[in-house]
Specification:
This protein has helices spanning 11-17, 19-32, 34-41, 53-81, 85-108, 110-113, 117-140, 163-216, and strands at 155-156, 159-160. The chain has two domains: 23-141, no CATH class; 159-219. The protein is built from eight helices and two strands, in the order αααααααββα. 75% of the residues lie in helices and 2% in strands. It is mainly α. A two-stranded antiparallel sheet has the order 1-2. Helix 3 (34-41) crosses helix 4 (53-81), helix 4 runs antiparallel to helix 5 (85-108) and helix 4 (53-81) packs parallel to helix 7. Strand 1 (155-156) and strand 2 (159-160) form a beta hairpin. The protein is rod-shaped, with a radius of gyration of 37 Å.
């Protein structure tokens, strides 16, 4: 049986085949944030002439890197609005700093990777920095996510913002609901108790009457 010959991996050929799609993606990214893309490409913001492939790629990478840096801010803001302001601040601050450091680390590898390491480094740095920042701010505030009774009591009017404030409001609501339930049940329970008392009283009276008749008319 003839041994199959291994086909060499031709990275250049694959890149050549995907070239039109990469150019189209670069065009879309460039137009999403033209000012940022122009700065990254090294051309004036109002430049209307044709862009070289290298300039288009640099502009697209600049937009992608900006998105990777801004994403931790968006994630932290959503976390803040979602009821975790302390963790949200840590996610935003730590993620933004991590993305900036990751982009710088990726820039050092840009001559080898063609610039792709910059947005990848920013994205990875943002994720790592966001997690570390969230853990740091929660730790400084004394928040243990597994214990709802830890952390500060912070509310914005009637809206609880921290897990302790949410827990306190939940307990208060549960107590109010239980009080309302007891208010509705007490009259029913009292009526049932009175009816049971009347039945017991009648039973006792019948028993006493039977004993009295037995004494008067013994068998």
């Amino acid at each position: 049986m003839a041994k199959e010959k291994a086909v060499p991996f031709d990275f250049a050929e694959i890149m050549a085949m995907s070239g039109p799609y990469l150019n189209q993606s670069s065009n879309i990214l460039y137009r999403m944030a033209p000012q940022t893309a122009a700065r990254a490409a090294g051309v004036p913001t109002n430049f209307i002439g044709p862009l070289s492939k290298a300039q288009l790629t640099k502009g697209a990478l600049g937009v992608t890197t900006m998105g990777a840096r801004r994403f931790p801010l968006l994630a932290g803001g959503m976390q803040f609005i979602g009821g975790d302001p302390i963790g949200g601040v840590g996610t935003a601050a730590g993620g933004f700093a991590g993305a900036a450091l990751g982009a710088k680390a990726g820039a050092a590898l840009a001559p080898v990777t063609g610039g792709l390491s910059v947005p990848i480094g920013a994205a990875l740095g943002g994720m790592i920095g966001g997690g570390l920042g969230q853990s740091t701010t929660r730790g400084l505030a004394g928040i243990d996510v597994n214990n709802p009774l830890t952390g500060p009591d912070i509310s914005l009017g009637p809206i609880p913002l921290t897990q302790y404030a949410k827990t306190k409001k939940g307990v208060k609501r549960a107590a109010e609901l239980e009080a309302l339930r007891m208010k509705e049940l007490l009259p029913i329970m009292e009526k049932a108790r009175q009816q049971q008392f009347q039945r017991d009283l009648i039973g006792t009276q019948v028993q006493m009457a039977g004993q009295l008749l037995g004494n008067i008319y013994p068998r």
